[in-house]
Task: inverse folding
């Protein structure tokens, strides 16, 4: 199985290549991709240099153009697609049907991958994208169990890539407007979720309160580590219970299941984290690369070292495990 | 495109779990009394609920059609299980009614046949609308998140199909494989015992500072606020929107439909309608932020055009 690694900066890109990534995915420095964070992503020149570096090391480069085109401003996305193709991207990762249609028509030779943001969660949906846009690979939404993936794989006519490590969306990706409900900025339209521009922390007595827009997302008593107020990882009151209503502040780790994923028909394993620093990328990529070729008995020890890199240091197998539902 | 006929009204599918008789009686009353032209029916949120309405679908369709309403069948919005895929394939193969696609599998299966597109499919631009029109879509209900500037541009591109806008109801904001509703009552999705049926208008999610924020509806999360585009109906109509969608809440939806119809027909002033709507559906503050390219929970007051935050009480 290929290991697909994130890069939010040229430095992280080189680290991922050096650490043995089979492919690195990245995006331009604008709203055309779903990690449109300040200080992240690539200019055209930076992408040219990165692709050149990757080529020399036998690594592929995937360019994510996985937000939805704003009506009237389609040219921004079309220009990004044209430039990514011209710079030699090995694949474009797309979510918007209009953009998929444009790319298929203009650049029929260009390899097209379906972004997780497209929410293709079953065989009929995936085959629609294969038939309509010649999609060569689908990144599955984090709504499926490993058994679901094994059932879908023989029914579809393209490769499967799945997220195995890093941040975890609780909601079906590409179908969530929680962030824009509170802030006006969404993953689909702006490439951001729970953006830092709308985050505030305030001390109230012994408690640290985290807010997103006008809403309290969590309160941390003294001594409890304060997490970032990602909306769906907040603590809320429902009737008389106070809890993490959607998901605890955990991150995804299903590297323990890589044999089952391979048996299910998965071609590529994806690491989330374009917003992460180069040290994180280097350590995660090199460890997971070693784990992939390691004897299964020795794998657990290799992976244990990554635990303290994870958000809140707690991990979950998410939807891959049926009881998560 | 100048319009002489004001937009028609569509009653969207009931997103919540209402028991069979409540669901049936709701539609009977809509058939008999509501000035709507089109009614979308069918379970859209969770396939586990299907059996509650199944025994009543035939009689509801008959009553609606007898009353002269056009019936459209809604598909599930998140399809992951083989059973769910099979159900959609069968619905599409067998149906004599127009089908509203809410996920990509339905889009694929409906290729080449007239169908409509629900608000849970991502249509953010004219290129996407055009592609869907080329594949057989005859109508698109645009996503609630879309600002008016985008609505205008998509319609101005004129792909030759009808456009509808989500103008009343708590907004569907997210859907998950995990059921937060079941979990909040100490269960998980697979042994949920249909606890979402206890909350026919959604289960309130409050912040730790007691702000009303969201509501759970099974695997779906909806807004606490109620989308209310009333002052905006004239401009929506002028830009070529041909239908206005009302999404059922647990309130007098006949009164809601009459209110929207009256504003569309220019027999009721929008400000007056807004005040009346607050009496018909007092459970949630009104919002129209998405339409005005603001946060979705915001209420942008009419005329003076000054912005207020949503009432968080």
Result:
């Amino acid at each position: 199985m290929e290991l697909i690694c994130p890069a939010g900066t040229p430095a992280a890109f080189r680290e991922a290549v050096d650490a043995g990534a089979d492919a690195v995915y990245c995006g331009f420095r604008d709203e055309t991709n779903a990690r449109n964070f300040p200080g992240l992503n690539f200019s055209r020149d930076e992408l040219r240099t990165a692709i050149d570096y990757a080529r020399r090391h036998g690594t592929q480069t995937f360019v994510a153009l996985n937000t939805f085109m704003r009506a009237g401003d389609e040219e921004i996305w079309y220009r990004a697609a044209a430039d990514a193709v011209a710079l030699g991207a090995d694949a474009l990762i797309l979510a918007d049907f209009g953009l998929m249609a444009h790319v298929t028509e203009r650049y029929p030779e260009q390899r097209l991958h379906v972004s997780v943001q497209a929410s293709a969660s079953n065989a009929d949906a995936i085959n629609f994208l294969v038939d309509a846009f010649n999609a060569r690979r689908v990144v599955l939404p984090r709504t499926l169990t490993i058994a679901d993936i094994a059932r879908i794989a023989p029914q579809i006519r393209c490769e499967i890539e799945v997220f195995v490590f890093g941040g975890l969306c609780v909601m079906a990706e590409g179908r969530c407007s929680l962030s824009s409900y509170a802030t006006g900025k969404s993953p689909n339209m702006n490439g951001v979720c729970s953006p830092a521009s709308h985050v505030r922390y305030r001390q109230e007595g012994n408690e640290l309160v985290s807010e997103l827009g006008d809403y309290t997302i969590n309160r941390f008593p003294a001594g409890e580590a304060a997490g970032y107020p990602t909306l769906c990882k907040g603590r809320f009151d429902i009737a008389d219970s106070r809890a993490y209503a959607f998901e605890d502040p955990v991150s995804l780790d299903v590297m323990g299941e890589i044999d089952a994923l391979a048996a299910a028909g998965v071609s590529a394993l994806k690491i989330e984290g374009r917003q992460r620093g180069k040290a994180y990328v280097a350590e995660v990529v090199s460890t997971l690369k070693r784990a992939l070729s390691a004897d299964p008995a020795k794998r657990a020890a290799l992976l244990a070292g990554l635990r303290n890199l994870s958000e809140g240091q707690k991990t979950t197998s998410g939807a891959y495990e049926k009881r998560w539902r | 495109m100048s319009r002489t006929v004001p937009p028609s009204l569509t009653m969207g599918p009931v997103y919540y779990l209402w028991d069979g008789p409540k669901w049936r009686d709701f539609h009977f009353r809509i058939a008999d009394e509501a000035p709507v032209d089109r009614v979308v029916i069918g379970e859209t949120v969770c396939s586990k609920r299907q059996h509650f309405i199944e025994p009543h679908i035939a009689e509801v369709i008959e009553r609606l059609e007898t009353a002269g309403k056009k019936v459209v069948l809604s598909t599930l919005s998140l399809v992951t299980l083989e059973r769910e895929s099979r159900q959609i394939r069968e619905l599409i193969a067998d149906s004599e009614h127009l089908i509203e696609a809410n996920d990509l599998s339905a889009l694929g299966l409906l290729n080449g046949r007239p169908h409509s597109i629900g608000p849970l499919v991502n249509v953010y631009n004219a290129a996407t609308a055009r592609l869907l029109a080329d594949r057989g879509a005859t109508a698109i209900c645009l996503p609630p998140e879309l600002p008016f500037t985008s609505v205008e541009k998509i319609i101005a591109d004129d792909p030759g199909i009808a456009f509808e806008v989500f103008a009343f109801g708590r907004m569907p904001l997210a859907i998950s494989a995990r059921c937060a509703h079941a979990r909040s009552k100490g269960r998980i999705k697979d042994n949920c015992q249909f606890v979402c049926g206890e909350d026919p208008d959604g289960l309130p999610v409050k912040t730790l500072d007691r702000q009303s924020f969201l509501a759970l509806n099974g695997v779906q999360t909806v807004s606490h606020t109620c989308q209310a585009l009333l002052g905006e109906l004239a401009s929506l109509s002028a830009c070529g929107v041909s239908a206005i969608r009302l999404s059922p809440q647990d309130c007098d939806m006949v009164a809601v439909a009459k209110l929207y119809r009256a504003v569309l027909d220019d027999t009721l002033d929008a400000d007056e309608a807004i005040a009346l709507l607050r009496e018909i559906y007092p459970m949630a503050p009104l919002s129209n932020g998405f339409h005005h390219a603001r946060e979705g929970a915001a209420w942008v007051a009419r005329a003076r055009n000054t912005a207020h935050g949503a009432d968080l009480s």
